[in-house]
Every structure is written in C-alpha cells, then in structure tokens.
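Students often ask why we bother encoding 3D structure as a string. The short answer is that it lets us treat folding as translation between two languages. Here is a chain of 296 residues written in the first language.
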Amino acid sequence: MSTLPKIAWIGLGIMGSPMSENLIKAGYHVTGHTLEPEKLDRLTAAGGTAAGSVAEAVRDADVIITMVPASPQVEAVAYGPDGVLENARPGALLIDMSSITPRTSVDLAAAAKEKGVRVLDAPVSGGEAGAVEAVLSIMVGGEQADFDEARPVFGTLGRTVLRCGPHGAGQTVKAANQLIVAVNIQACAEAVVFLERSGVDLTAALDVLNGGLAGSTVLTRKKDNFLNRDFRPGFRVDLHHKDMGIVTDAARAVGAALPVGAVVAQLVASLRAQGDGGLDHSALLRAVERLSGARV
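And here it is in the second language, the structure alphabet:
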C-alpha cells in the first residue's frame, strides 16, 4: 500500500490535466472530477480514478487540489452541500491552485477552518508547457506547517516553490506575475511589429534580443507563437483579462499606482472585445497589428 496521501483533483483543464497526470506518474492515487467527460476519460487513461461529483472525489482524500478558472468557480466547488468543505474529512488539506482574488482565498481559509479543513492558496506560473514539464513556479499563501506538509506534492508539479506569506499572499504574488507577463507580452508584440515593418530578419532579431538584457521567459516561451502566428491557447486572453482585473482591483485597494499595467489591461480588454478571447495571450500581437493598420 502506498504511503503517499490520497489526492482529489477538481478541475481538469489545460493546466489541471497535465498536473494531475504528473502526480499519477509520481505514484499518487488521484481521484478527479471535472465537468468535461473527455477530460475524465483522459484521467482514467493516465491511471487516475474518475468521480461523478465533487463530493465523491473529496470524501476520502487527504489532499484536495482545485484548479478552476476564477473566483466564482472556486466558490462553486468549495461551498454548498455538494462542495468541498461539506464533504472533506476533518484535517484534510485543501490546496487551491486557481488564480483568483486574494480576498476569495482569505475568505475560503476562514470558512474552511470552521470545518476543520486546512487551506493553502497556491497559484502557478509557467503555462501549459510548464504544467506538462512539471517546472511550474508555485507561489503559496498559508500556514508554514501546511506548506511544509505539501512540499512533496508541490515538488512533483513545479521547480520554484516558495511560501510568500499568510492566506492570500500567493494570489497577491500571482497578480503581480500576471501584470509582469502581460506588459512583457505587449512589449514583445510591439517589438515584433516594429522589426517586421523595418525589414529585418525576425527570427535572428528575436534570438539575439533573447540573448541579452531584453531576454525573458516570456520571449523564450512565446517566440514561436509570434513567428508562426500560432495562437492556440496555452493561456487564454479571457483568463488574462480576468487576472488584469484582479491586479487592478488589488492595487487600488492598497493604494499602488499601475500606470503601464492599466494601459495593458485596456489593451487585453480590447483584444477580447474584438473576439480573440479564446486565443493565447500572445495574440496581443494581433492587437498591435490592427493598431498599425494591418487586417487580421
């Protein structure tokens, strides 16, 4: 019998499916639930167990991981008679790896404490590729003892794993991450249009830029998207739009000015309004091209 904790995984999307599969490969017993039947088939094919409801998935779990799109979905799976808190056993550890508002995480931790359930907020960065390769950056908020207990699970999913403070701290750091990523993608997109209009070898230009101070993980990960105009979603514009709302609201609450972030938030919103919300966030290139007079 395995001595590893039994894991319930709620949410098997672009990120959740490969992450749960990495846990299965590491020897964990994973029971999953999601609203998409084909994703449950994928889980069982990988060696996991499909559950027909949140309640069924979490009932015998030692660790419960949620990875859903936004705060409303976290609240939907956490609360209510069929939710995590009503059906998890006392002492279970709930790790929410979704990207949500810091306030939602703080409120969830307080509600869970009344049920005897411990909580960590642990959003991730690295996109689909990082999830598949198990090299995610994981930023965690919550109690030190719970973080220490969860370290082996986190170590299976990511490479850079740090506790950033109390409940909500992980989500605050993730909001900052999404601000940096959005501004970086926007700058890369503007550079691509500038370089192309100037007639230089774009592949060579991006390679040499990425080897210097302008280099970044964003450029490394998204270079081929720009070159090939391949905007299949690794991280959808819709979700980055949500995240820019989170960081804008959180910054306002603490009195931090985000002048560049506010502009990029509007550019992301504009891209979404033009029907590109389902594309990868590297599609910010399309917005720059439109502003530069191209038909895309």
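Translate back mentally: The longest strand covers residues 158-165. Keep this in mind for the problem set.
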